[in-house]
Amino acid sequence: MSPRHPLIELTVARFREFLREPEAIFWVFAFPVLLACALGLAFRSQGTPDVLVGVLRDGTAPHAEMVSALEQVTGVRVRVVDRTQADVALRNGAIHLLVVPGTPVTYELDASRPESRVGRFVVDEALQAGAGRRPALPVADRLVTMPGSRYIDWVVPGLLGMNIMGTGMWSVAFSVVNARVRKLLKRLIATPMRRRDYLLSQMAARLIFLVLEVGLLLGFAVPVFGIPIHGSWLLLAALCVLGAVAFSGLGLLVASRAQTIEGVSGLMNLVMVPMWVFSGVFFASENFPEAMQPFIALLPLTALNQALRGVMIDGSGVMTLLPQIVILATWMLLSFTMALRLFRWR
Amino acid sequence: MTTIPASDTTRDAVRGGADELVALRCTGLVKRYGDVLAVDGLDLEVRAGECFGLLGPNGAGKTTTIEILEGLNTADAGDVELLGRRWATDADALRQRLGIQLQETQLNDKLTAAELLRLFRSFYRQGPSVDALLQMVGLEAKRDAWYGKLSGGQKQRLALACALAGDPELLFLDEPTTGLDPQSRRQLWDLLAAYKQRGRTVLITTHYMDEAQVLCDRVAIVDHGKVIALGTPLELIASLGAEHVVEFALAEGKDLPSVAVLSALPGVRRASIQDGRGTLIVAHLHEALPALLASVADPDAFTLLTTHSATLEDVFVALTGRQLRDA
To answer: How far lies B169's CA from each of A189, B54, B98, B109, B282, in Å?
Structure first.
């Protein structure tokens, strides 16, 4: 088989090299899925967690009756404890609430723990009803689960954004600096290869990885966690591509002069760590002070995360997401222009 | 000035090995790095079809020179003309016709020999197939081995194959055998000899004089960024005016005769003493050797007494007063 166009050969070479790097495969493909899995399990919303209640056995007041009454209540798990066990269990959260039988019945709890306050309410309700209290006002509950309101629905677009940033920057910057360190860039420009083809092949390989990584993460998270995608799939895909190209541009910029892997790693962290913190990957960026918000909004990862959440959760269209799209496109143009101007081949 | 028109028919004429044609010419090359003058007004003329060696110790300016010729570095002053063209105006056309092996390139560890050659071959409009290239450098068996798993000698041979991917008219090799074991060096020499047989032009830098003597039709000895001697290896050796070299040393406590005494011995053209070791360049061994023995009072004092035919190494020593390896 005779060699194809240099752009294709360069892209294939880059792609092969990547596939033969097991660590890269893990960080790009497996890690985000594992992270989504872990977060999904930790914050799953299949029912509210049980309230853990301890009933004190101190020999002065009978407790058996109270224990059997509480065991009837759904969502409550009861155990009988003595004083020493009770203090330890309360401290380490093995029980949320300690009920001391007697007159009056005493609840011991740490009021700063939400589950303890909920526990007190649930237990008190059950005990009062058992003692004969009837509700003064008739009420009824209607339980709803809004798709898209869970933490996992919110965090998956953030993970997607984070991954697009990380892979975009690492895959381009690492490969370019590595080639520079090994004098491979210099060797390549000693051939008739067009410099443009080399840079385009980095982009092309990046976009192939993108299809795989986005496909894998969504292909896992959407069916397993029932993540909704309310907006257009096409817009979602376009945003992923825009984000990937913008972050590859930043990767190229970071790599444009770096002479060592250590040097480029430092620069990468300088660029990426603030975005991990501020751009709303794991928690909403609204947590930061009002004065910082305009700056946070201009970060490319903030724009990408907002746009991805807009499409997936709110079903937003292009017009709604225009500000984010403009921010990403501006980053893309700026970073490429500067990277090409600064780029060193030797 | 001889120029070579670029049309394909005349290109073929060059390939035919018309000796008078010039493949490469540079004049007045100067390159300065801060206070260091790396290349100091260097002139070269390489004829089409010859293997030309740029010889000199490390730091003599060989690599800077060859990289300027290869269009990878720019000179502060001077003119470079390759195959009748110049970098400023014909870079794209030149790149298609040159083969280049850099001194310290490492290719991608996790690509196979065949994949790397395919990649390099794709950059050129014409050239041998990947299989032909592998065969040329004797790496057929390593076709599917990762570059990172190859030995030093195999890596250098693959680098040579990459340089040959465009079937170049002019091949640049910068220290191709540095760091290789003797057997790998000899393998590479055989490959280059075969390439030369096909009438192509080669410019090679090396600090191994034996390598230059085996491979090169003509050599330029470079020191401190200047050409200090130019000619065929035999001419340069003949310029010593003598064919033999005698080296000797005496046991500790025994005084060597002075340079003046040694120079005056019959049959000796030149004498030097360095680090307690005497070197005589000798026209007539049968006269010089008995005279040397006679000049040392105690013949048992010799800890070293050896003679060899003069080499390029001796030319370098005679020109600079330094050994190549510690120059």
So the answer is: 18, 18, 6, 29, 41
Per-residue pLDDT, A145 = 64
Euclidean distance between CA atoms B247 and B263, whole angstroms: 14
Domains in chain B with CATH codes:
8-237 (3.40.50.300), 241-309 (3.30.70.100)
Q: How far is CA A244 from CA A164, A200, B235, in A?
A: 6, 13, 63
Q: Find all residues with CB under 8 Å of A255, minimum gap 6, and list them.
A: A172, A173, A174, A176, A177, A180, A264, A339
Closest-CA distance, A20 to chain B, in angstroms, reads 7
- Calculate mean pLDDT across residues A181-197: 93
Assess A298–B contact: CB distance below 8 Å, yes or no.
no
Q: Sheet with B51-55: list strands edge to edge.
A: B98-101, B170-174, B201-206, B51-55, B218-223, B226-231
Residue ranges of the domains in chain A?
Answer: 6-43+147-342, 51-130
What's the CATH class of domain A51-130?
Answer: alpha beta
Instruction: Choose among B105, B130, B146: nearest Cβ to A184.
Output: B105
Give the residue, B103 or B275, on which the prediction is more confident.
B103
Going by C-beta distance under 8 Å and a sequence separation of 6 or more, which residues neighbour residue B285? Answer: B244, B246, B267, B307
Q: Give the position of tokens 């003493």.
A: B273
**Which residues in chain A have Cβ-Cβ distances shorter than 8 Å to B105?**
182-184, 186-187
Q: Is A142 a residue whose pLDDT tops 90? A: no
Residue type for position B130: V
Check B129 against A2: CB less than 8 A apart. yes
pTM score of the predicted model: 0.78
Reduce the DSSP state of residue A32 to 3 states and report it. helix
A1 or A107, greater pLDDT: A107
Q: What angle in degrees, to the nearest 10, is found between the helix axes of A195-225 and A151-181?
A: 160
